[in-house]
Design goal:
This protein is an alpha+beta fold. It is built from five helices and ten strands; from the N terminus they run αβαβββββαααββββ.
């Protein structure tokens, strides 16, 4: 294992990347089918894109020769070359300022904001925070986001720390992810990370018992559940991963509406909370 040179890694702070994309109806309809979206009639040109669905756009197409052994782009490009094997979504904070409409063209500006080194139960942890802004073709800021990525050592054997779910909330649903759902979501996000489709790689190289359910997929399901519970569009969505969820257990979605705020969490079988979130309604 290479020594973590934090000063070297922090040389990536301030690095930027810009992309422009069409918020295409076809991709939105494919995601609606993947997550069984509750209101498919709203997935038409001119309608506002549901929360967090912008993650299926602005995708980087790195050639096969530019991929690392985990299926992600080789490290050291836009993201810093963190010398830890496991990479996961740790959480994020998203503000929906103006509607991002299906059929429109938008620009995404990304910047490395912060890089920190910490110690956790599994050893070294490196957190990379990336800021994203989505702008309309006319120059209106639509979405502002901070995304936290965590790098760590392979998951050690043994049970993870369990976070007990609160008492059942007023709005509850159950989703049972399948390998097909993970495959579809990986395809829609052009995500080559092998933990989502290569079970042997999961077990032998990254220490997981089964295929890993995408953090952004869990967040998307939870944001949609919060919006449905609240009966209106989200203005803000803050989420934090608490544990890795793997295939084989149902995902419970719980939400409680408190005035114009929604508190929500996702549970993984009987293993406790795997993601917590808080949302604000418009």
């Amino acid at each position: 294992m290479d020594v973590i040179d934090l000063d070297h890694l922090r040389g990536w702070i301030g690095k930027t990347r810009t992309d422009t994309d069409l918020i295409a109806l076809r991709q939105a309809r494919l995601l609606a089918a993947t997550v069984d979206y509750h209101a498919p009639e709203r997935i038409v040109d001119g309608e506002e894109l549901p929360p967090l669905w912008h993650w299926i756009y602005f995708l980087e197409g790195v050639p096969q020769s530019g991929l690392g052994p985990d299926g992600h782009p080789a490290r050291g490009g836009f993201l810093p070359p963190v010398p830890l094997p496991n990479r996961l979504w740790a959480g994020g904070r998203v503000n929906f300022l103006e509607p991002l409409r299906i059929g429109s063209v938008a620009r995404k500006e990304s910047t490395i904001l912060k890089i920190d080194h910490k110690q956790g139960r599994s050893g070294d942890l490196v957190f990379v925070t990336v800021g994203h802004e989505l702008w309309s073709a006319s120059g209106v800021l639509l979405v502002r986001e901070e995304h936290d990525i965590v790098y760590r050592n392979a998951t050690p054997p043994g049970p993870a720390m369990k976070i007990v779910a609160p008492v059942s909330m007023a709005h509850a649903a159950v989703v049972t992810p399948s390998a097909t759902m993970l495959f579809r979501y990986s395809a829609l996000t052009f995500n080559g990370h092998r933990i989502h489709y290569d079970a042997d790689y999961c077990r032998q190289h990254e220490g997981y018992a089964n295929l890993v359910i995408h953090g952004p997929l869990l967040a998307t399901l939870l944001a949609g559940h919060a919006e449905q519970a609240g009966g209106g569009r989200l203005a803000e969505f803050n989420y934090r991963a608490e544990a890795t969820a793997v295939l084989g257990e149902p995902i419970g979605l719980q939400a409680e509406v408190l005035d114009r705020r929604v508190v929500a969490h996702a549970t993984h079988g009987d293993s406790g909370v795997c993601m917590q979130a808080e949302a604000r309604l418009r």
